[in-house]
Amino acid sequence: MGDSTMILDETNRKNLIFLILQFLHEEGYEKSLHLLEQDSGAFFDYSYFSGFITNGKWKDAEDYLSAFTSPHTNTFSRKMFFDLYKCKFSEAPDRSGGSESANIFSNDLRRIPARIIIILSSAVTILFLNADLIEIPEKTGSVDKALVRASLCVDLRKLAESNPSLCGKLVFPNLNKSALLSLISLICPNSNVRMGGSKEDLIRLILQFLHEAKYKNTLHRFEQETKVFFNVNYLAEVMKLGEMGKAEEYLAAFTDKHANIYSKAMFLELQKLKWFATTPSGSLDNTTSQKTKLLASVGMLAKKNPALRDKLSFPKMAKSRLLTLMKQTMDWWRPHSCSNSKSLEDIPVVPYLCGEPSSLENKLNRTKVGNCKLKEINHPSECSSLVLPNYWSGERIACLTYSPCGDYILALADDATHKLWTWSTGQNEFCKHTPRVLKEDVFPKPRLHQPMSGKTMKNEIATSVEDSTSCFAIKGSYLFSTSGGKIAVFDLKSFERVASFGSPIKPTATYFIFIPVDLLAVGLDDGSILIHCLSSRKIKEKLDGHDQRITCLAFSRCFNVLVSSGADGKLCVWSTKRWLKLTSIDSIQNFCTRRNNVPSLVTQIQFDPYQIELLVVQDKWISRHAAPTLDCLSQWVPDESEAAITSATYSSDGEIICVGFRSESIKILDSMTFLIKCRINLTAFTQPIPSNIRVKVYPAVVAAHPSHPSQISVGLSNGKVIVLQPLGRGGWGEADALEDDGDNSDGLEHCY
Question: Secretion signal: which residues (predicted)?
């Protein structure tokens, strides 16, 4: 390998590590990702770290923290390790009746400076003096471990933010999606191994970088996860060291003993080597000779093995090739960009392998990168759409949802009237099929459902417009709903009101959700939250943490926490085991960096489908937060030209976020990067007939289909509901979405 003539500064090296970390995350190489975080020390993933704590994986939490700092580094590090060991220490009697506590004290706490250990010495004494009183706690009356662990996560986060060893390592740079691939593609548009034009070539460039940086743990884990390069030298090294477990694990990542005869023979040779390592045999010379023959045999078998032979060679490339390419590309790109910035946030997005260098350069000389043009939908023919039939008033849609299994769509309008659309053929039955993109010759058209009795589901209306807040929730075949008055309970099949509860006067319900198994959390306009037990019909708890009305509630099954947002700007996190407040934030606008400091009301909160991240929606921005600590992960502020945000929701797979605006549009964002994938101009669907009179119609609420990630339903300000889905099999803004397979409508009729 030739030496690079370019001097590469530490900033480029650090930037490249962030780009590689993003690539590892996007490609799902999670083990390599977190090993590189530790080996490089560039980014401390607090969400990953706190996950160990909430699951009681104390050794993993300690190992991850130890990669960045130690108890002797500074006061903050010392306190972090101390709190970690203290929580581990406090849980130990549950598992061992006290003996494990002594081990923690003598082993783990020995790492803490002596003056800190003195604090715990009395605790150990008390523990053993009262050994006869120690019992393994039962579920009832035991300390809520989840609550303690969640509180520890909050405390450690504060210490981490003040810790000089972790300063600047807690926030990941805001990068465009596939930033590293895009960056390399700018200067290497053609696919070839030497320059790194394909994804496999990029993997090889990363492997070279990891090798040169001596990140051995990450390097060999990355080899196993990517399966692009089989490192015979590494295999031989661990075999010589007698680490046969590592050798078998490495080989098993690329093949298994049933793949072919060569693989079977390789695993057999490893078993023989393992036997030599554990069983005394004849003379030392004879043993060494036999081991040498076995090592050589494994190498020869690898060369003949069809599962490995194409992965044994590594391309020759100049030293620090990936660093060099990155610096060359950024130096070349900045004169073409508008900002001329050195920030990672300004790395351009280009389609992968975007064409010849000449065509690429022409595009760069015109605007930004031409292929970064936002996918716009300005005509009904550019996506599948279906306006649901509606024969009632044109009042704004206040609430909208699919049923949990997707067999109907339910809406609540401002006039307190509910509308339910089914894909059924009979008056008294719901279709078992979900309302996806439907073929007319296979499925019936949707219809506005009306039972034979002729009854309608209508709420009591609030006594004043100011008190009018709409909310509903589905439990089985029953609908709980309010429009500012009492909470009504309807039978969804007969539309009959079967019950009502609450007060028609203040305080009234402003938002409510169900909590498994039989609890209903009701937020009131005085800022309190009532926890109703449905089976006993009694109020179980009353939570006080807000000064003004509750605007939204969200529950996480993963962490067993309830999150509440209020008109006072607070977010509160409550344990649903003990009904205690875990944490709260007084000023939601101070969570993330804002363009301005104008207060904005939190109108909506929602957990992602995996129940680990919280989407927070205001009229000026949206943001993602880690649960249960509410750490801000990322934030998106729309262009100043956009009107207020009206609604936002995750797709069923959590990959996209759909955001509605008063400017009569919907934007589809990547949920991780907040990059805009597509913009839907709703005027194309709400103004179908040419007219001199234009009525402004905006998306009041957006709902996502529970099993079809690309389908959304939009409740409009004119009372209509429209179902939207991209053409073809692709997602919003994807190239495949433009392929119509000869059927532009794909079954969704555009009707008015």
Answer: none
pLDDT digits (tens, 9 = 90+) for 1-11: 334 434 447 78
State both tokens at 101: 């506590």
- 464-481, pLDDT tens digit by residue? 655 568 999 999 999 999
Neighbours of 573 (CB within 10 A): 25
N-terminal to C-terminal alpha carbon distance within the chain: 68
Torsion (CA) 565, 569, 575, 576 in degrees, nearest 10 = -20
Contact between 670 and 655 under an 8 Å Cβ cutoff? The reply is yes
pLDDT beyond 90 at 38? yes
Tell me the CA distances in angstroms from 345 to 130, 173, 342, one per residue in order. 58, 7, 9
Q: Which residues contact 557 (CB under 8 A, 6 or more apart)?
A: 516, 611
DSSP type of residue 527: S
Q: How many helices (H) and strands (E) would you count in the chain?
A: 18, 29
User: For residue 295, with 0-12 CB atoms within 10 Å meaning exposed, 13-18 middle and 19 or more buried, which class applies?
Assistant: middle
- The residues with which 616 forms a beta bridge, in sequence order, are 605, 623
**Residue 216 token pair:** 């051995």
Pairing of the two strands 509-515 and 571-575: unpaired
Per the DSSP assignment, residues forming a β-bridge with 676 are: 669
Rounded to 10 deg, the angle between the 244-252 and 232-240 helix axes is 160
Q: Check if the beta carbon of residue 599 is closer than 8 Å to that of residue 569.
A: yes
Long-range CB pairs of 729-732 (<8 Å, 24+ gap) are 731/655, 731/656, 731/677, 732/375, 732/656, 732/668, 732/677, 732/678
pTM of the shown model? 0.56
* Angle made by CA atoms 333, 338, 340, in degrees to the nearest 5: 55
